[in-house]
C-alpha cells in the first residue's frame, strides 16, 4: 500500500456527506469481545473518544472470531443506523469487503485495524492501522533460530486460516525459518482462536513429536492453549516456545519460563489511533493510509520495563 495522504473531503462519495457527517457515533467493531486483546482495543478507543466531545463511541463484536457472518451483520447494522464512522477489525478479508464498500457508498469513513481486507478494497476505506505482521513473524522466527538452533522441528500453532494478520504473521514466520535455517516446520495447525482447541492440538503434537525444538503460538488464545499444554506435559523450558499478544496468562508464562517470549502488539494504540483517525477524517483533516501500531518482543529480561508495560494488558 502506498504511503499517500488522503482526506475525507477527497474520498469520492464521502464528499457529498462530509458536511453532515461531522459528528455522531463512531462504531468500533472488532473480531470478538471475548478476548483481553480486543478489550484492550476498547480501552484505547474509550480513551480517545474523551478527546472528541462531538462524538460518541460504541464497541461491539461477535462471540468468537470465527463468527464471520455475525460481524458482517454488526457492520450492516452500523451502516443502517447512520453512524458517523467505523473502526473495523475484519475477521475475514473477503467476507467483510462488500460491507465496507457499502459503508463507503453510504458516505461513512472506515478505519481498518489489525487485519487487512481483500486486495482491491483499499479505495473503500480511509486508513489501515496494524502491527506490521510480517515483520513481527520474522522477528519471532529470528528469535526461534537464535535460541533453538537451525536444525530440528518447530511446530506452528495458528488461528484462523486466511485472515490478513495470520497470512503475514504466520506466513513470514514460516518463510523466514525456511530461508534461514534447516528447521522442519510441523503444521500450521488452526485453533479457530479457541484456547481449548489449541491446548488439545498442542498436546497431540507434543506427544507425536518428542523431538520438537520449538513451537510458535500465533495469537492470544492459541498461545495460551499452547502454553498450558506445554506445562501439562511437563515440558516447560525444554523447548523454545514463543507466543503472541500480552494478557496476564501470557505474561505469567514468560515470567515462569514456559514461554521464551511473547510478541505483543499495540492493541490499545489500535483503538486509540483508530478513533482519532476517524475523528480527524470527519473534521476534514488528513490521515495517512497506513499507521504502524508496533510490536514489542516481551521476555523475562524486559517484562518489567516501561517499553513492555506500555503494551501489556
UniProtKB/TrEMBL annotation:
Keywords: Signal. Belongs to the bacterial solute-binding protein 2 family. The lineage of its organism: Bacteria, Pseudomonadati, Pseudomonadota, Alphaproteobacteria, Rhodobacterales. This is Ribose transport system substrate-binding protein. GO terms for cellular component: cell envelope. GO terms for molecular function: carbohydrate binding. It is found in: Cell envelope. The keyword Signal applies. InterPro entries: Peripla_BP_I, SBP_2_dom. It holds the Pfam family Peripla_BP_4. Residues 26-285 form the Periplasmic binding protein domain. Residues 1-23 form the signal peptide.
Amino acid at each position: 500500500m502506498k504511503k499517500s495522504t488522503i482526506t475525507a473531503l477527497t474520498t469520492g462519495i464521502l464528499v457529498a456527506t462530509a458536511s453532515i457527517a461531522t459528528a455522531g457515533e463512531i462504531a468500533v467493531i472488532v473480531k470478538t469481545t471475548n478476548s483481553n486483546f480486543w478489550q484492550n482495543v476498547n480501552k484505547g478507543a474509550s480513551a480517545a473518544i474523551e478527546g472528541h466531545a462531538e462524538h460518541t463511541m460504541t464497541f461491539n463484536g461477535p462471540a468468537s472470531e470465527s463468527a464471520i457472518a455475525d460481524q458482517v451483520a454488526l457492520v450492516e447494522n452500523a451502516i443502517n443506523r447512520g453512524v458517523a464512522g467505523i473502526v473495523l477489525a475484519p475477521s475475514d478479508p473477503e467476507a467483510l469487503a462488500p460491507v465496507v464498500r457499502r459503508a463507503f457508498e453510504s458516505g461513512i469513513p472506515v478505519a481498518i485495524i489489525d487485519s487487512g481486507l481483500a486486495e482491491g478494497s483499499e479505495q473503500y476505506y480511509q486508513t489501515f492501522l496494524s502491527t506490521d505482521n510480517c515483520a513481527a513473524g520474522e522477528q519471532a522466527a529470528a528469535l526461534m533460530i537464535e535460541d533453538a538452533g537451525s536444525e530440528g522441528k518447530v511446530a506452528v500453532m495458528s488461528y484462523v486460516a486466511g485472515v490478513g494478520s495470520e497470512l503475514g504473521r504466520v506466513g513470514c514466520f514460516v518463510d523466514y525459518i525456511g530461508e534461514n535455517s534447516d528447521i522442519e516446520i510441523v503444521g500450521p495447525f488452526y485453533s479457530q482462536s479457541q484456547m481449548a482447541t489449541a491446548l488439545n492440538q498442542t498436546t497431540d503434537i507434543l506427544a507425536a513429536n518428542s523431538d520438537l525444538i520449538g513451537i510458535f503460538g500465533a495469537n492470544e488464545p492459541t498461545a495460551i492453549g499452547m502454553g498450558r499444554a506445554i506445562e501439562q506435559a511437563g515440558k516447560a523450558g525444554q523447548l523454545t516456545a514463543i507466543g503472541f499478544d500480552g494478557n496476564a496468562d501470557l505474561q505469567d508464562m514468560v515470567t515462569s519460563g514456559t514461554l521464551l517470549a511473547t510478541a505483543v502488539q499495540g492493541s490499545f494504540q489500535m483503538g486509540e489511533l483508530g478513533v482519532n483517525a476517524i475523528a480527524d477524517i470527519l473534521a476534514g483533516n488528513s490521515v495517512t493510509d497506513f499507521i504502524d501500531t508496533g510490536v514489542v518482543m516481551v521476555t523475562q529480561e524486559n517484562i518489567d520495563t516501561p517499553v513492555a508495560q506500555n503494551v501489556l494488558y
